[in-house]
Structures are given as structure tokens and as C-alpha cells.
């Protein structure tokens, strides 16, 4: 009797083990495409760049180990490094919250079942489709102090607009406004997410007499927190890597008035491809990596407090 | 049953993935490009070329330029075709790559060991490329046929690094003062007497200003960032054409004349007001609306090729040209220029064949053709002189081109020394702070 | 009393309906205003694309073209410096491959990260996020060398193959969507003896259709607009793509703005069409929990 029960316990344990193992095996199969790509395509170049940050690598002829020299230079003698970091933090600090709030509001508005909704959605998504150098040149025209559309419109309501890209105080706000214009990409994420909010929840709340704002706060918002979290994390990462717009709008990377558009990646690019100091540039890249990693980890920890997953983590 | 199901699922997923892979890879090679099957450096699909003769294996060269626009592409491709038909041994294929990115790709290709055979590159950074072994040293080829003398000396200096040449100058540019003759007449100035000194420039500019209340309807001139000229060019103009750092590393940034130039620019900004200055700067920067062509700015420093835009888009503009005004009488009408070189990236497979092609491209025939078709200054002296008299140019064109060639004597090029590759980024905020 | 209750109820519903209508009107007005703001920069493109070059060079610039040149569109597409029809085919080919690969691979990988527990999962997911944090241009050169050594130069393989391995952004995004699906659904299916592959394909993927549509739209957009990729890996002009083609309007002196804008707008059209098409998957009330009952 005793032995028998022991035996059956064992077999339960074993079968659970094999269930777990089988589960894990399937898990590995699912992530294997990524793993293969990571090992064979992504990891090598990443490790290479990590190593080269300790060298004087110049891409074509030189790669001698120089220890921490690049980092010492970065933190002690390169004033543009700190300027670029400051500019980038400024940009991220405003861009991320503004675009997140903007995208959520827009998505909610575009989910109201108003006639012509497809049409509206397309219009708001358009800027996200437009990409590349052409758009930035377009915006330079729009932001032109005297004949640009923006200042012309501001003039109609009696405001004399700033010089935008020519005023060091206004260059970063200009870029943030431009980013807000193309908030349609983020909107699309929330729109997709909103489709997953069960209708019964709203119906139930309506029976309880909840108004639109309460419904938004108690139902919509919690249900889309996974995507808000995603949006914040990825746009922070993306914001730190702002490059092309600054490059185009500051005359091929010159950095704008009073270096106000020298962003982190712009400085890094200049180091890598104008001066061929690739070792230094990779060093900068890994410093950026550390900064963004820490911010992301903070985000991940905080997420436990506010992100709601219907299917909790398993 | 369960196990079978699982395996089936797995199989189907793997199959889908691999099918997709095959479809994409296969479709790719079926896309009309043999290149998929052949290594990059031996590809044989220059579209226009004849099937290679069975006996003689022709050498194929890949030539990268950023000249892909509908004005420039036919010109460069005609020159290449001329070269291809001028001899039997070498076939050159032209590949257009967009401005700026062409050099990023070149760099990656050099690092990977599969660079193009010949490339057009920036004239100011030859020393940096030589120093980091991105280009082939030409000494050995020059020892066999010394063609140094066919180039302007100022241009030749840019291609030398530690006394050895790493590229051949291809084209260059020069800047002078374009002024609106009608505006001159309207302001009571003699349309045939442009300003020659800074003082005159300022005096004329004030007369040419036209104000309506607080707004400028026309601005005579502004020295910094309108057109193709900035504070750094004025600094060198004031300082006997001396740049900021020379090849020996002597730094000449804070000389009295250079500082005075900055103060002078400041005076203009104060007079016209920041908002007017920025407003026009934005227009010139947009490269769309052009206030000079529209008659809103009466004088401007521009490259000689600006003439082609006046010819094509500003038919009514009655303009004149003059050398850049000099600092004080007799100090010299120093202008500044840039340009491009033709060179062999390090690791190219056939440097000797590349050299043949480069020689052709910098010879009189090719260079003259380039000059008259593009209205561009070329590096070859004889070609420059011949182009200025070429029957293909109209009267105005001959005049402008002739002036452009003459202006080269006063045109300074400021190559970036290899030991201070980013000195400009250090200079920039300093220059701005002085304002 | 009962009649009283009836009128009260009716009044309540009338109030509701009025509120609803008011809300929709306000939202519609806001959207119309917003559209005007969004579209005004695009108007600038349209306007420029219809002007002759002489007018573009005019200062101050004109808001409406003085005369409309529809011919610019034809002229841009048939530009002698470019081969847009061929480059369109190339771009379409690459894009279709990338979209199909991305949709499959990312949905597959993300499910593993979201719904299956296995040792090392968190570390691997951290690695997924980490790959997003390194700026592309420091890995660009080593990656180029790697692809060169694989013999992939001058093919579309470097543009397509990586999408088979998923991208961090999409994996993360789809993981978030999968995690919003209740686990009971999976547990119930498992009770019935289904394995994860079956659950993934038959239950999960249909439930996140809007998210999959988003991936399709984003990856289409990304591949369609990719500039640096084709530029780096293709050496043959016959294999170029539209984004490189647009660059041929930029001259050394003067850019042909009218043609550039016209061609840019034409290049935009397929993306808009695709977006319109995929909107069918954004149907309100797509219900995740409904699956359990179904």
C-alpha cells in the first residue's frame, strides 16, 4: 500500500516532468527562427562592435587594442558628446509622452464608428507612410520662418512664429512637432489593440451608468496597457536613435544653430563616417546601449505595477 | 495520433518557411539578373556591352558616381562610352549611387574587400582616405606617365598626402558675385560697376535695400549663408586666402583679419535683423524658391554653375558677375572652391586598368566635354581654356565660363588635414560664439 | 407606476442617444480639423508636383500652382535617368517576400515568448530587446562583410532572409498581443489534446488578426521605403528599387522638385491601397474572449 502510493507519486512527478520538458521543447521550436538569426546574423556584428569599442578601429586599416581610451576621451575631452547626450535626452523626454498620449487619443477617436472612418484612418496614417529625406525637406519648407505654412497660419491668428530650425531654442521642438505629425504609426498599434477589448465590458459598464470618461479610464485604458508599455519602450529606444531628420535638417550633419541638433547618433555618425573613428563610434553606441538598457529595465520593473495582461505571464 | 499531429504541424511550419526561402531566392535569380549566380566582381551583365569576344578576355571595371540626374547621367555615360570604344582591352560600367551614400557604401565595400574599380570622391578629404588606406597610391603609375602638369596646381595639392598622389583631380568650382543689373539701375548705381571691396559692397548693399515699413522688399546683400558662401569663406578672403589649418599643422584661426571678418558679418546681422536674415537663409537652404532669381536679393555669392539655373529658370534676370570683393584694396579677391577627384579604392582588382580609365577621364577631350555640357570647372588646364572658347556655348555662357576659369587663380581650396579630421566641428561653435 | 417607469426609461434612452450623437459630432469635428493639419504638408507635395520648375523657384512660393501641369507625373515616371517600371517590379518583389516572411516568422516566434514557459526565456527575450538598442550603423559594416562572405552581394538575399528570423520590434509587439489573450483558452485546448503548434495556428493567430494586419502594414511600409538596404547590397542598376530611383531627381545643382514630388506621390499609392485593404481586419468588437464560447 505504502509502496504503491509512493510509486504513483513518482510517476505523477515523472509525467509532470515530461510535460514540462515537452512544453519547453515546443517553446524552443517556436523561438528557434529568432535564435538562429540571432546567432548567425545579429550576434557576430554586435560582438564585433563591442570589441572594436576598445580599439582605434578605422574601418579600413587599423584595429589596435587601446583599452578604455575611447571612453575616457568621451567622458573627459569631447564636449560634443555631452551636448549630444543632453539634446537627445531633451528630445526623448518630450517626444515619448507626447506621441504616446497623442496616439492613444487619436486611436480612440478613430474607433468611434463615425461615417467615413476608413478614410479618416488612412489620412492620419499617411504621414507614417511618408518617409525619408523628402519629408524632411518638405518640413524645412513648412518651417521656413517667413514663407513657411506654419508661420503663415500662425500669422493669421496674430502670432509671429519663431525661426524654428534657425533658432537654437526651437530646433528640437520643431523635430518633436514633426514627430507628432506622424503619430499615425502608433495610432495603428492602439487601433489594433482596441479591437481586442470585449464589447460586453462596455455594455456592463453602461448598465452601471458609466460615462465615456469612466469607461475609458476603467476599461479601455487597462485593456491597452500592454501596447502602451510597448509603445513607451520602443519609442524611447527609437527616440535615443534619432538621426536622419537631424542630419538632413542641419545641412548634412553640421548640427544646426549652436549645435542644438547634434543628437547622439548624429555625433556618432560623424565620428564613424566623416572622421573614420569607428572605434570611438562603437564605444558611443555601447554607452547608449547601457543607458537605454537601464531605462528599459526600469520600465520593465514598473510595468508590473500598471500593465494588465488578460493572460497573465506564464 | 497526438504525436503524429505535432510532427505534422512542425513539418508544415518548417516547410512553409523553407518554401518561402526558396521562392524568394529562386525568384530573385529568375528576375533577369545573372548576378545572383556569379560573384560580384566577375559579373558580366553590362547591359549595353557586346558579348565578349571569345578569344580576348576583357577587363571589366565598375565605376561609381553620384551623377544619376537626367542632366549629368548622359554626360558621364557618354564619356565612358568614348573610353570603351577608344580601346579594346577594358570595359567600364557606370553605377549610380546617391550623393553621400555612395561613400558610405564604398567604405563598407573596401572593408569587405569588394570595392568598385574607380570612384568619384570628395576633393577635400583625400588625405584622410590616404591615411586610412582607403585609396590606392598612384606614385607608381605617375612614374610611368607623369600627367601632373595637366592639372591646376591648387587642385593637384589636394590629392597629395606626404608628397605622394592618391587621386586625380576631376572637377572643381569657384564662386563669384552675381548681381542684378536692373536693381542696380533702379538704385541709381552703375550696372557695369560692381563692388570690388568690402566697403563698396556694404555701401552698394545699403543703397539696394528696399523697405516697405518694417519689411524688406529687397535686400541688397547679406554675407553669411545666403547663396553659396559663409563666414569661413570671408575669414579666408580677409586673411590673404589662408585657411584655418595648413598641411604642417599650423593653426590660423584667430588672426586679426579673420576676427575682423566675423565682426563685419555681425554688423550686417545687426543692421538687417535676425528675423530677416533667418527668413532668407531658410529660403536659400530649401533650394526651391530662390530669392535672387525672384529679384528679392540684389547680390549674392554663388558658384559659376548657378548660371545654368539663371539660364533655365530665371530668363528675365538681367545679371552681371564680378570677382568676390576684396577685404581692402589690393588684398586680393580670394574665392573658395571645392570639387571632386577620381580615385581607385583600396583593394580594387585591376588598379592598372583603373589608371588607364582615370587618365582618359582627366584628359583634354573628356574634360572639355564635361566642362561645356555641365558648365562645370574642370581640373585639366587645357580643357578649361578650350571650353571657354567652345562654339557650343552662347555669348553669355562664354563670358561666364571664361570668368570662371580666370577666377580659379584666386580660388583657394582648403583640404582637411588628416591629423585634424574634425577640426570643422570644433571651429563651428567657436565661429558661432563670436557672433 | 409602470407607465411612469416606461417614460423614465424612454427618456433615459433618448438622453443616451443624444449623448451618443453629440459625442460622435464632436469627434467628427475634431477629426476633420486634424485631417486638415495632417494633410496641409501633403498638399505642399501635391502643389509642388503640379508646378513647372520656374514657378517652384519663385519667391515667395505660391500655395496653389498658377497653372497645373499633370504632365509632370508622366514625365517623372518615364524619366530618362531612371527605369521606374522595372524598379517598381523589383520593389514589389522584395516587399512581398518580406511581408510574407515577417508575418509568419514574427507571429510564430512571439507566441513562443508569450505563451510557453521554458528555461532561458527571459534571458532570450532580454536579448531580443537588446538588439534594438544598438544603433544600426555600428553593426552595418560587419554585417555587410558577413553577407559579402556568404556570397549574397548583389542579390536580394540580405534584404529578405533576415526577415525570416523575425525582428525585435515585431516580436515584442506580437508578444504583447498574445499576452492579452486569456490562458484559459490555451488550457482548454490542451485538455482536448492539442499541442502548441495547433493552438497557435488555429486559435491564437485568428484572435490577433488586427495585430497581424498591423505587422503586414508595417513590414510592407518598411520594405517599400527601405533605402539603405538595397543601396548597400545591390550593385546593379537593373536591380535597384524605387527609393533609390527617387534620388535620381536630385541634381548636383538643382533638384527637379516637381518630378521628385510627383514620383514620391506615385510611390506612395500602393502603400495607401494596401492600408485601405488591411483595414478590413480592424473591425470593431473583434472579441478575444468570444473564442472560449465559440
Structure write-up:
The complex is a heterotrimer of chains A (314), B (435) and C (294). With 314 residues, chain A is mostly helical. Chain A folds into two domains: 1-52; 72-306, Orthogonal Bundle (MetI-like fold), CATH 1.10.3720.10. Chain A is 72% helix and 0% strand. Chain A is flat and about 70 Å long. The model of chain A has no long low-confidence stretch (mean pLDDT 90). Chain B has 435 residues and is of the alpha+beta class. Chain B has helices at residues 2-29, 72-86, 101-112, 126-131, 139-144, 153-159, 181-186, 198-208, 231-238, 256-272, 274-286, 306-313, 351-361, 364-374, 381-388, 395-407, 423-433, and strands at 59-65, 90-96, 118-122, 160-161, 164-165, 168-172, 175-180, 210-212, 215-218, 299-303, 319-322, 335-337, 339-343, 377-378, 411-413. In chain B, strands 2-1-3-13-6-14 form a six-stranded mixed sheet, sandwiched between helices. Chain B is 44% helix and 14% strand. Chain B is built from 17 helices and 15 strands. Chain B has two domains: 56-173 and 338-392, D-Maltodextrin-Binding Protein, domain 2; 175-335 and 423-433, Periplasmic binding protein-like II (D-Maltodextrin-Binding Protein, domain 2, 3-Layer(aba) Sandwich). Chain C has 294 residues and is mainly alpha-helical. Chain C has helices at 2-49, 53-56, 71-77, 84-115, 121-133, 136-149, 157-164, 168-179, 183-191, 196-207, 209-225, 228-233, 242-246, 257-278, 290-293. In chain C, helix 4 crosses helix 8. The longest helix of chain C has 48 residues, at 2-49. The two termini of chain C are 42 Å apart.
CATH superfamily of the largest domain in chain C: MetI-like
Structural class of chain C: mainly alpha
N/C terminus separation of chain C: 42 Å
Quaternary structure of the protein: heterotrimer
Q: Return the CATH architecture of the largest domain in chain A.
A: Orthogonal Bundle
Q: Using a beta-carbon cutoff below 8 angstroms, give the protein chain pair with the largest interface and the number of residues from each chain.
A: A-C, 100 and 104 residues
Helix content of chain C: over 70%
What integer is the average pLDDT of chain A? 90
| Structural category of chain A | mainly alpha
Largest sheet of chain A: none
Number of strands of chain C: 0
Mean pLDDT across every amino acid position of chain C: 89
Number of strands of chain A: 0
Tell me, briefly, the overall form of chain C: flat
Which residue ranges of chain A are poorly predicted, with pLDDT under 50 across at least 5 consecutive positions?
Answer: none
Gross geometry of chain A? flat
Domain count of chain C: the total is 2
CATH class of the largest domain in chain C: Mainly Alpha
User: How much helical structure, as a percent, in the residues of chain A?
Assistant: over 70%
As a percent range, the share of strand residues of chain C is under 5%
Instruction: Note the run of SSEs of chain C as H and E.
Output: HHHHHHHHHHHHHHH
